[in-house]
Each structure stands twice: as C-alpha cells, then as structure tokens.
Amino acid sequence: MRLPVARAVEVCPVEVAVSVLGGTWKLTLVKHLLTGTKRFNELGRLVPLANTKTVTRQLRELEEDGIVQRTVHPEVPPRVEYRLTARGRSLAPLVTMMNDWGAEFAGETIRS
Amino acid sequence: MRLPVARAVEVCPVEVAVSVLGGTWKLTLVKHLLTGTKRFNELGRLVPLANTKTVTRQLRELEEDGIVQRTVHPEVPPRVEYRLTARGRSLAPLVTMMNDWGAEFAGETIRS
DNA sequence: CGGTATCCAACTAGATACTG
DNA sequence: CAGTATCTAGTTGGATACCG
Predict the structure, then answer these.
(1) Which fold is adopted by the domain B25-111?
(2) Each residue of A93-105: pLDDT tens digit?
(3) Could you tell me how far CA B81 lies from the centroid of its own chain?
(4) Bridge partner residues of B71 (DSSP)
(5) Of A9, A14, A109, which is closest to B27 when you measure between CB atoms?
(6) Fewer CB within 10 Å, N or C, chain B?
C-alpha cells in the first residue's frame, strides 16, 4: 500500500487509485463528505470504529493527495472543517458503486 | 482492513467493499482476470511488483470471498487456472472506473 | 474542540530459498 | 509450474492519556 504514484501507474492505473484510496476509512470519509462539509468530530461520529488518531491520519493523507481541503477557523473553541475538492467530488460515482456493491455483497453473504 | 462483513455493513456498505477488495493487488488481479482465465505465473508476471507469496494469499482471499474460482488440473507439470465468478465479473464497471480515475490522477500528479 | 504523544499489538509485505 | 517455508522490515491500527 502507498506505492508512489509514479511507480504504481507503470504497473496499472488501478494501482494508483488503490494507493490513494486504499486506507481503511478513506472512502467512507469521502462518502460522508459528499453530503457536505463536516467538522472533525462529526466525521469521527460517522465512523465510530475508527479512533481520532486514525481519522486524523487518513484525512491528512487525503489532503496531501488533493481530495480533501482542511480549513481551520481561528475561534475558541476551535472549528476545523473538511470539504471535498473538485478532485474529491469526482469520486462520487465510484463511491456510489462501491456502496451498492458492498450492500449487495453483504446481503448475499449474510443470507447464506 | 479485513473487518468482518457483518460489522462493516453496520457502519457503511462502502466498508464492506473496502474490506473485500482492499488488498494491495486484488483489484489489479481482478482487472487482469476480466480479460480471461489466467494461470498462476501469468498473473504473477502481470503484477511484477508482488511476489508469489503475496499473489497467492490475495488470490486465496478472493477465492474465499467468492470473487475468483481456482481450478487445479492434475497434470505434470501442474496447471492451476484462475477465473472470475459471476460475483467477480460484477466488478467490471468498478474496475473500469478505478482505472480511469487512477490514470487521470496520475496524469495530473505527474504533470504538476 | 480538535487534535498529539506514547506505547504496543497485529497484520502486511518482501527477499530468499526450497519442494512435489 | 505453482506454490510453501522462513525470517524480517515496515505499516496500520488501537488504547489511553494529555494539550492549547
């Protein structure tokens, strides 16, 4: 995981996407951000199995990769907002497909 | 990674898909299998950065999850073929999207 | 509120060598 | 050919506590 883009693309562009999106919670975070700007603890509540450290790291990597934009509002108490960039919003169809495929898979698996 | 399906789906169906498909080479293997049945070393050559151990494990997990079917032909030398199941073929649109998105991402990233 | 720091367990991945 | 065995390095994730 986290192969440099330049190498990944030589093997296969699919690898690039896996490299950028492959963190355990990344696509779920993107999914929630597709419904609008969110604050840090809001995202944390939406992904209850991940702890703050994990959420922080994955958001920072998404930021580095230009998927997410982080805005700090200098207030007390602090307010930090996360929103998708244009590149992040371009993931909408992909997230929808993964969501549908995952729901289908879970339905079949749990029935059997 | 590799959250049990039953828990993942409670959080979000996207997590299910990530759990099943999130291995570093899994989607690339699926992509190559979409073009037809392949033998073990053929797949290995198509994913040159992964070693045999890694390819083996990821194929086995895909098999457990009903994405890939493994057929051993009792010959000398041995021949083992991997093909997608119906569930595996249902990933075709997803793989295409990831491929296109990855290519786009790499293009933008390398240019800048 | 939105994180960091620390420490630690578990898993992943790779190199290399070997086998039925 | 299609793996397995062994050993090791590196990454991910989690619990808990603390900070500006």
Answers:
(1) Arc Repressor Mutant, subunit A (1.10.10)
(2) 999 999 999 999 9
(3) 15
(4) B81
(5) A14
(6) C
Smallest Cα distance from B32 to chain A, Å: 10
A-interface mutation test, from B19, B27, B54, B98, most A Cβ less than 10 A away: B98
Q: Taking the domains of chain B in order of start, what are their residue ranges?
A: 25-111
Cis peptide before A77 (omega within 30 of 0): yes
Instruction: Provide, as residue numbers in chain A, all residues whose Cβ is less than 8 Å from the Cβ of B96.
Output: none
The token duo for B47 is 């994913």
| Continuous segment of H or E residues that includes residue B79 | strand B79-84
Cα–Cα distance between A108 and A27 in angstroms, integer?
Answer: 22
Q: What is the 3-state secondary structure (H, E, C) of A33-60?
A: HCCCCEEHHHHHHHCCCCCHHHHHHHHH
Cα distance between residue A29 and residue A26, in whole Å: 5
**Predicted confidence (pLDDT) per residue in B32-76, tens digit:** 999 999 999 999 988 877 889 989 999 999 999 999 999 999 988
Contact A68, A59 (CB under 8 A): yes
User: Per the confidence metrics, is the pTM higher than 0.85?
Assistant: yes
> Does A91 lie at the interface with B, CB-CB under 8 angstroms?
yes
Percent of chain A with pLDDT over 70: 99
d(CA A93, CA B36): 26
Query: Are A41 and A52 contacting, i.e. CB atoms less than 8 angstroms apart?
Result: no
